[in-house]
């Protein structure tokens, strides 16, 4: 995880979780992918920026997942997933990854 930006891990978890659920037709499997990437991202957030930032970004990750569902009814599933993944990636980059 040391070389992979947390923004990429978080966005990949949202996109990968949805893709896994959609292509396998097993929603719980998508949830496992989503949760695993979220845990890896949260560990990186905590290590790089502390507990408060990790908690805030973890909340944003969960909110993005939840918010993607009603958004999908308005703009479609894939556009919704990409939109929320981009939002979480941006927040992660601003709060954590741009720091050197």
Automatic annotation (TrEMBL):
TM region(s), chain numbering: 29-45, 77-96
Keywords recorded for this protein, A-Z: Membrane, Transmembrane, Transmembrane helix
Source organism, top-level taxon: Bacteria
Identification of the protein by name: Integral membrane protein
Organism in which the protein naturally occurs: Streptomyces caniferus
């Amino acid at each position: 995880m040391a070389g992979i930006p947390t923004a990429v891990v978080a966005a990949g978890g949202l996109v990968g979780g949805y893709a896994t659920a959609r292509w396998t037709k097993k929603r719980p499997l998508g949830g496992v992918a989503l949760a695993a990437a979220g845990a890896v991202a949260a560990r990186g957030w905590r290590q790089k920026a502390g507990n408060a930032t990790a908690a805030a970004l973890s909340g944003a990750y969960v909110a993005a997942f939840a918010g993607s569902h009603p958004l999908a009814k308005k703009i479609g599933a894939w556009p919704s997933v990409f939109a929320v993944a981009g939002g979480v990636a941006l927040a992660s980059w601003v709060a954590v990854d741009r720091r050197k």
